[in-house]
Specification:
By secondary structure, this protein is of the alpha+beta class. It contains twelve helices and 13 strands. It has two domains: 173 residues, no CATH class; 142 residues, no CATH class. Strands 3, 4, 5, 7, 8, 9 and 10 form a seven-stranded mixed sheet that branches. Strand 8 and strand 9 form a beta hairpin. Helix 2 packs across helix 11 and helix 9 packs antiparallel against helix 12. It is elongated, with a radius of gyration of 32 Å. The model has no long low-confidence stretch (mean pLDDT 90).
Length: 410
């Protein structure tokens, strides 16, 4: 189709054409960045922690009086929990994903404390059955052996404790020894004594998953048994058992398991609820941005429909003349669709420039990554499609005008 008559017509309606181009440009710029932020949040929410989250419950205990030697009570608590119906396995840990505690340590590859850390990683002190309880997957090596565990209290006031082994997540192993096997290698976290890598798990998240800090992707586990005073109990519920019922039974059991010692339960919950609460703000942000996108697209669509309807009324005589000269309905329809395509293209081109500018602003202000290029053609395709759908009804009405009625109406 010859676009020169279309351009000539648009020149006579510069203001209306300019407004719809500006509206499309603004929508394109905002929607492209909003979609990028939405998919970022979705990716964050969908991040795999490597755990059997749907089977996990956890809680912590605090004692009302100081306990000088908490290890015997801790072992009695673990033994009592293992006997409860519905408990598949149980462990103690100083922290867990989505929890309140977050312990990180620098990792050195030599015993010299003056050397800079090679990496920073989440520091898990884990009791027995930690890997089995959380459902982690070993991709290399083995779990800790019983003789490798040390009590957390033995580390107090000891500048050079002996912690013989460590298990890394795959990400940290690749950071420390890219392209090499980590098994048997030594790291230094506890003093000048080396901790030998005995295993590597596929995935283990930090207590703050989804953070933009690369260090939160690194995690390591040490065979350091926390006590009930400083650790949290994590229970893996047996298949078919009710998580809430098991959690209540476990807390009731331990409160009655310490005669003469008054204790209170804190931070009890299922892993699924902890995850839902942790990502609550992200879900709200997704809903807000999705609402903005839908609102802008609806307003733009109504703007296109209104402008096209107005132009159909203004060009009734032109339409009748073209129909009288032999123009078919399809040609009239394509005329308005082509006109909209030209306006949309100009608006999208300006919108892409605006989208890049907004992305640079977000990068400087909020340290967000650069807008990936793929979102620009995706946004352009969406707006082109929206424009063609929005103009279709007014264009069909124009094409349906009988020549005589159109000329008489003009």
């Amino acid at each position: 189709m010859d676009i020169l008559p279309i351009l000539s017509t648009l020149k006579r309606h510069k203001t209306a054409a300019g407004l719809i181009v500006l509206q499309i440009a603004l929508t394109c710029a905002i929607v492209c960045n909003a979609l990028f932020l939405i998919f970022q949040r979705i990716e964050r929410i969908s991040a795999d922690t490597g755990m059997a989250e749907s089977e996990l419950v956890m809680f912590s205990l605090s004692s009302m009086a100081r306990v000088e030697n908490p290890e015997p009570q801790t072992q009695a608590d673990l033994a009592a929990l293992r006997q409860l119906p519905g408990v598949a396995s149980v462990t103690l840990t100083n922290q867990y994903p989505y929890g309140r505690n977050s312990n990180n340590s620098g990792v050195r590859l030599a015993p010299d404390n003056k050397l800079p850390s090679r990496a920073v990683a989440s520091h898990y002190q884990t009791g027995r059955d930690f890997i089995r309880t959380l459902g982690l997957k070993l991709v290399a090596g083995r779990d800790f052996e019983p003789t490798e565990y040390v009590a957390n209290s033995s580390l107090d006031d000891n500048p050079n404790p002996r912690v013989p082994a460590v298990i890394l997540n795959k990400r940290l192993a690749e950071v420390l020894w890219p392209g090499e096997s980590a098994l048997g290698k030594a790291i230094y976290v506890y003093g000048d004594e080396p901790q030998r890598v005995v295993g590597v798990v596929e995935s283990l998240s930090s207590p703050n998953p989804g953070s933009q800090d690369d260090n939160t992707l690194n995690a390591m586990m040490f065979p350091v048994q926390p006590s009930f005073r400083g650790g949290s109990f994590v229970i893996r519920v047996a298949p078919g058992a009710d998580r809430e019922a098991v959690l209540k039974a476990a807390t009731d059991k331990l409160l009655a398991n310490s005669p003469g010692l008054r204790r209170v339960i804190r931070d009890q919950d299922t892993m699924l609820k902890l995850r839902a609460n942790y990502y609550r703000q992200d879900r709200s942000m997704i809903q807000l941005l999705a609402g903005v996108c839908v609102g802008l697209l609806v307003v733009t669509a109504f703007g296109i429909v209104g402008l096209a309807s107005f132009w159909v009324q203004q060009r009734t005589r032109m339409i009748g003349t073209r129909r009288a000269l032999g123009a078919t309905r399809g040609q009239i329809l394509r005329y308005f669709q082509t006109e909209n395509l030209l306006l949309s293209t100009v608006g999208i081109a300006l919108g892409m420039i605006g989208a890049y500018g907004i992305s640079l602003l977000l990068m400087r202000t909020y340290e967000l990554p650069r807008l990936p290029f793929v979102y620009l053609p995706a946004g352009a395709l969406a707006l082109w499609t929206l424009g063609q759908i929005a103009v279709l009804a007014p264009a069909r009405r124009a094409a349906a005008l009988p020549p005589v009625a159109a000329l008489r109406g003009g």
